[in-house]
Amino acid sequence: MAAAWFICFVVFCLHLIHYVSGSAKGAVGLDSLTFDKVISKHRAVLVKFDKQYAYGEKEDIFKEFCKKASSQSELLVAEVGVAEYGDKDNDDLRERFKLKKEDFPYYMLFLQDQEQPVHFKGEIKEDALTAFVSKHAGLWIGLQGCVEKFDKLAEKFLNSAITKADEVISEAETLLKETKHKKYQTAGDIYVKIMKKVKENGEDYIKNEVSRVNKLLKDKITEKKRELFTIRLDILTSFQHFISKKKDEL
Questions:
Q1: 161-194 per-position pLDDT tens digit
Q2: d(Cα 42, Cα 31) in Å, to the nearest integer?
Q3: Which of 28, 32, 108, 249 has the least C-beta neighbours within 10 A?
Q4: Do strands 75-82 and 44-51 pair parallel, antiparallel, or not at all (unpaired)?
Q5: Quick one: 210 and 124 in the same domain?
Q6: pTM for the whole thing?
Q7: Both 209 and 162 in a single domain?
Q8: d(Cα 169, Cα 29) in Å, to the nearest integer?
Q9: Contact 21, 53 (CB under 8 A)
């Protein structure tokens, strides 16, 4: 009887481990049978090769990137979990691409118009993965609350001389008037207001506003306000990214 209970306990633990350490939300799990079928049907697929049930800082970065990448419909994020023991699931894929387990997690970008994948060689950071995909696949990746056209204007605004700032703001206002989708109108209005505030108060406004919005999100607020503040925070984060990118390029 005790042995039966022990077996049940072990099975339960294995299921629990699988549940806790399963695929990242937003990523598709691939194996030896599905790999080529899935890859061939998408314009761009970023694949992470890693040990099964990965965890830690690099896995957290991957999970955050998956959330961000969900805004781009033409990009599929996938992962291949390679088992070290038992049947050694997907170890054949590791061998096929000549990967060493010491290199995990390892990223490759598969593009529909190219025979060979592009290998990611940088430091595993969310911004680095975003830049890698954007550069080689030509795809915009933004946070869920962001809008591609307004994001591009935000970057243009931050890279413009002070004398040209009003011109970019005017472009954003024109785009806002032409925008029909209510969700994009809400976001567009936030972009325009942030640009005007940055013009008045400088780039430090972004950092201070991020701090303020984060505090507000911790308060008891209505779901409607929480949704609006979350969109605002996503857009502010995008501005922060462009400011950081500009400094890195100097």
A1: 888 999 999 999 999 999 999 989 999 999 999 9
A2: 16
A3: 249
A4: parallel
A5: no
A6: 0.68
A7: yes
A8: 43
A9: yes
